[in-house]
Amino acid sequence: MKKMFTSFLILFLSIGLIGCSLLSSNTGESSEGQGQEQGTNDGEGTTIKYWYWADNSEYSNVMQEIIKEFNKTNGKGITVVGEEYPWDGGAYSETLFTAAMGGGGPDVASFKLTSTPLFTANDLLANLDAFINNWEDKDEIDENIYNIMKEASNTDSIYVMPWNTQILYVYYRPSIFEKAGIDVPKTYEEFLAAIEKTTMDTNGDGKTDVYGFGMRGAKGGQEPWGSFIYGRGGNFENLDSEASIKGMKDFINLYEKGYVPPTATTDGFNEIISNFKSGRTAMTIHHTGSSSGMIEALGEDVSAFPFPAGDGQWTSMGDTENVIFQSSKNKEAAFEWVSYLATGKGQEMWTKATGNVPVSKSVQSMDYFQENKFMKASIDSQSYAGILPILDSTTEWINTTWPNTIASALMGEKSAEETMKILKEELYK
């Protein structure tokens, strides 16, 4: 991989792999690249500079409290100085990259996995293998999460420290399930059957007024679509395999048989959420970021379950993580800080405040998370969650190739075989 292939990933950084990116905006009042310092340095021991973004002023205040708590309790004389920068549609990552290349970056920074190839190709990130292998809390984090960190760098090493995630699951309307006389599906086949059974003409006028599934055919739909491919035993590496093609046929079948709204070819996030809230669809796929709106609109008539297993199982994971820079002269102290955010009090404080999914098993086991049905569906999906391949072609594939090719397939202009051949060729070109 060549150094300085910035044009690809700098553009890609603004693309959320879950459709709605984790902490996707920022209201911090930084200007002209100057961070707003938070936390104090009392001059004792080691000082760590930490760059981060926050979604709003409430989250910013929470991070300030986490920093203060760590500085007061770490017992090793470590002082974290937090500098907040705006996310700015992904420009945060470009600012971070430019600063690191110029030698003026922080010791630690919040981070997106999609940035990993760019930063590792330029030798900017510290290898965390030794730190994690010697860490007493190593097993607090699911092995699958570590594997995703490795996958992001396309190596067998970890350069990104897990922090918090958002994981796709299936929303469903219990009242519609009751009317259709079905239970929550436990297998992929049962899920397909549930989509068919919850597609109904409820008023007897001969027209469908409830569709079983809210399909997202526009940009961003590649992630829920991926669950259908894996449900038949396919995967992103072999998109043209027999199993992957079978999953594609399932997806086409939903449209051709009228189990999804006829607008599915162009439906995006707003449409699938609106259709679900209005009762036009019985199920759809998203994450905890939309759960409060669902509860506000539907009360108790909304619940969730993990995407069920078939011959395989997969769901999409969005992320916000942390990295330590190779240039840091205080890597041991820096790891104390990122591990505090991963499994310490900082993990609990941040995920409770933001509604993101914790990576710490101990935090996940708290009643606060286990008694939240949407969080529980996310946590139960964590062991098989994943990300799309991070390649030079991924941005164009997400924005153009996938929605255009899928639309042609749904409308009968391309066969499943042709569709998957194109998708593989364009992703791995």
Could you give a quick summary of the protein structure above?
With 429 residues, this protein is α/β, with parallel strands linked by helices.
Task: Explain what the structure shows.
The chain is α/β, with parallel strands linked by helices. The chain folds into two domains: 6-167 and 318-386, Periplasmic binding protein-like II (D-Maltodextrin-Binding Protein, domain 2), CATH 3.40.190; 169-315 and 390-427, D-Maltodextrin-Binding Protein, domain 2. The protein is globular. Helices cover 43% and strands 12% of the residues. The strands form two sheets. Strands 1, 2, 3, 4, 5, 9, 10 and 11 form an eight-stranded mixed β-sheet that branches. Strands 7-6-8 form a three-stranded antiparallel β-sheet. The longest helix has 17 residues, at 57-73. Helix 2 packs antiparallel against helix 14 (345-354) and helix 10 crosses helix 19.
Instruction: Tell me what portion of residues adopts beta-strand conformation.
Output: 5-15%
| CATH class group of the largest domain | Alpha Beta
Largest sheet: 8 strands, mixed
Secondary-structure element string: HEEHEHEHHHEEHHHHHEHEEHHEHHHEHH
Overall number of domains: 2
Helix content: 40-55%
Alpha-carbon Rg, integer = 22 Å
Task: Provide the CATH topology of the largest domain.
Answer: D-Maltodextrin-Binding Protein, domain 2
Strand-pairing-aware structural class: alpha/beta
Mean model confidence by pLDDT: 91
- First-to-last CA distance: 15 Å
The low-confidence runs, each spanning 5 or more residues with pLDDT under 50, are 1-43
CATH superfamily label of the largest domain: Periplasmic binding protein-like II
Care to count the β-strands?
11
Alpha plus pi helix count: 19
- Going by CATH, the architecture of the largest domain would be 3-Layer(aba) Sandwich
Shape: globular
Pfam family, one: SBP_bac_8
Protein name: Multiple sugar transport system substrate-binding protein
Keywords: Sugar transport, Transport
Organism: Metabacillus niabensis
